[in-house]
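FAQ

Q: What does a record look like?
A: Structure on top, sequence underneath. For example:
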């Protein structure tokens, strides 16, 4: 059991960040290429249908933000000057701002100390003859207790508008949030669980409300006449390109939710025993999606919140303060909501983005425990540096293995040695790399010009500065550099990696590239314990295909490519839907077939 936290990582561990894959990229590229004229709203249509289906509502449409969706819902309900709308004291300003846009007044209700969402048992005292609506906010993914809200709404004829921005996929007694009131608004802003860059959604089961909101959002356009407007409206619309991203995201919505829950469970496992901290809760009969795993520092803890944030930052951990009580902002009169004025002032959001790995959360928790003077033994069961300083780790592993040969890997006809920053200032290295890149130009998707200057930039930015990429020189048995091979996209926790940058420069040693690749595969599967090894290659390269098949690679996927020439650089771009176009080549993904090698 260790009592020291892990050494500092080089990269700040960020609080947010989406889960983006090639599917999102392909859909967005397709929308940009083809999503015009007759197809201008195909992705919007599919995205809207899928989203409504996922939430389980009858009506709704995508918007440019959750803020816009909230504003439209309030307008559609006729809320305006003189009216009051009850909102929680603790939320993002958008909740109250949407009320102010209509001319109505937000009335701030206190929050619960343990769940941090609006305390619906304290609602009634805020109800006046002017009250028209309540906006419960399912903060950080925890649904608000709804029964008192339903009772009051019935009694006083109030409109319930859920601000479900951070709760896509949360459940309350078996129902998704978004179904718990008369209408609800969601957000797909870049830090949320499901993203479209910026974006939102208005849902409701009330068709009339939806029609009215839709009309307002269409600049008050008379649907029966062309370009003829009968009211001043608004325009909070989502573009087809954003909807393309959203469609790919919603196709894996449950996976996104599970990842968020997984991240929280890692925190819970490692911090749950500390009495002075409180973490998010999940009430019985609810599913919290833990959009932001968060903690509140107990009064016994000597740190002030902002001091704690600063200490974490010094340890390369990003965090954010919980929301400031809104009535404390200069635009409002401060309200008497003691819980909201105390708890969030000691609360922070922890790194919770989708890319976060267990190693990273382990690292974060080890440092939190250390700051609080707690034993960190519990956290040290994982390699703390893991993916964080992946390159360092691989290099040190290599160094341990090959200490005597300075990271060199012996292969039957020669050896491999890592390309280092020294090559940037070695003319002969740059010139030979540029020469090989030029000769093989048609065999890889160049992003940098195939000149010496472009090669230098490629080496510096795409290779040396990229944490999960290592390039090796291939030397023949007389030590001459004859080509290069690389490793890319390591994920030590998920146990996969990719062979990359396999360029054969000189001829004359027929099997050497295959031996070089085999040596890297052995390294990946042996010392680095990567289970799956992938590589990607253009389909029009039979020699390379043969080589990879000899290594035991099997095709698992291919995507069509389109040729684009830009400033003399030929690029190949993924396209998924260009039905009238002849496909010249594909990008093939190979995966090592373990049966062959075992
Ligand atoms: C993110 C968020 C919003 C705003 O969403 P936008 O899409 O940025 O307008 C509103 N309310 C809450 C509670 C949020 O977390």
């Amino acid at each position: 059991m260790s009592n020291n936290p892990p050494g500092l990582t080089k990269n700040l561990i960020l609080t947010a960040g989406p889960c983006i894959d090639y599917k999102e990229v392909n859909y967005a590229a397709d929308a940009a290429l083809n999503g015009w004229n007759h197809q201008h709203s195909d992705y919007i249509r599919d995205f809207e249908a899928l989203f409504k289906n996922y939430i389980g509502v009858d009506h709704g449409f995508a918007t440019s933000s959750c803020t816009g969706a909230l504003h439209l819902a309030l307008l559609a309900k006729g809320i305006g000057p003189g009216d009051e709308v009850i909102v929680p004291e603790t939320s993002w300003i958008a909740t109250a701002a949407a009320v102010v846009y209509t001319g109505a007044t937000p009335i701030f209700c206190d929050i619960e100390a343990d769940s941090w969402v609006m305390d619906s048992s304290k609602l009634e005292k805020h109800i006046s003859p002017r009250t028209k609506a309540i906006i419960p906010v399912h903060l950080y993914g925890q649904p608000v207790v709804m029964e008192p809200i339903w009772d009051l709404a019935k009694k006083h004829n109030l409109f319930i508008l859920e601000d479900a921005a951070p709760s896509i996929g949360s459940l309350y007694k078996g129902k998704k949030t978004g179904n718990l009131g008369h209408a609800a608004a969601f957000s797909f802003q870049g830090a949320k669980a499901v993203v479209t860059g910026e974006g939102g959604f208005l849902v409701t089961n009330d068709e009339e409300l939806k029609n009215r909101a839709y009309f307002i959002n269409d600049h008050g356009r008379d649907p029966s006449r062309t370009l003829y407007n009968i009211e001043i409206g608004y325009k909070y619309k989502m573009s087809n390109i954003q909807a393309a991203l959203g469609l790919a995201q919603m196709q894996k919505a449950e996976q996104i939710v599970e990842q968020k829950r997984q991240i929280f469970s890692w925190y819970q496992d490692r911090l749950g025993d500390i009495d002075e901290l409180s973490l998010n809760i999940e009430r019985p009969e609810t599913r919290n999606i833990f959009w932001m795993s968060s903690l509140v520092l107990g009064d016994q803890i000597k740190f002030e919140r902002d001091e704690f944030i600063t200490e974490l930052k010094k340890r390369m951990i990003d965090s954010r303060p919980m929301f400031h009580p809104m009535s404390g902002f200069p635009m409002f009169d401060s309200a008497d909501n003691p819980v909201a004025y105390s708890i969030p002032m000691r609360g922070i959001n922890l790194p919770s983005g989708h890319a976060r790995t267990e190693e990273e959360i382990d690292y974060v928790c080890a440092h939190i425990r250390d700051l609080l003077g707690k034993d960190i033994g519990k956290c040290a069961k994982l390699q703390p540096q893991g993916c964080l300083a992946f390159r360092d780790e691989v290099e040190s592993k290599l160094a341990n293995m090959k200490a005597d040969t300075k990271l060199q890997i012996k292969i039957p006809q020669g050896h491999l040695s890592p390309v280092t920053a020294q090559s940037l200032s070695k003319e002969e290295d740059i010139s030979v790399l540029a020469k090989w890149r030029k000769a093989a130009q048609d065999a890889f998707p160049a992003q940098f010009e195939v000149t010496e200057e472009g090669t230098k930039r490629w080496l510096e930015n795409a290779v040396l500065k990229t944490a999960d990429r290592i390039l090796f020189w291939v030397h023949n048995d007389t030590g001459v550099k004859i080509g290069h091979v690389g490793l890319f996209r390591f994920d030590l926790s998920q146990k996969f990696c990719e062979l990359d940058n396999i360029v054969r420069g000189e001829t004359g040693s027929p099997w050497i590239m295959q031996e070089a690749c085999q040596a890297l595969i052995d390294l990946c599967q042996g010392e680095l314990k990567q289970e799956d090894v992938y590589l990607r290659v253009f389909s029009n390269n039979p020699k390379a295909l043969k080589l990879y098949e000899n290594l035991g690679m099997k095709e698992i996927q291919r995507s069509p490519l389109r040729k684009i020439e830009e400033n003399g650089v030929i690029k190949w771009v993924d396209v998924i839907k260009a039905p009238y176009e002849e496909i010249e080549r594909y990008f093939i993904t190979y995966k090592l077939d373990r049966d062959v090698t075992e």
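Q: Is there anything notable about this one?
A: The longest helix spans residues 253-271.
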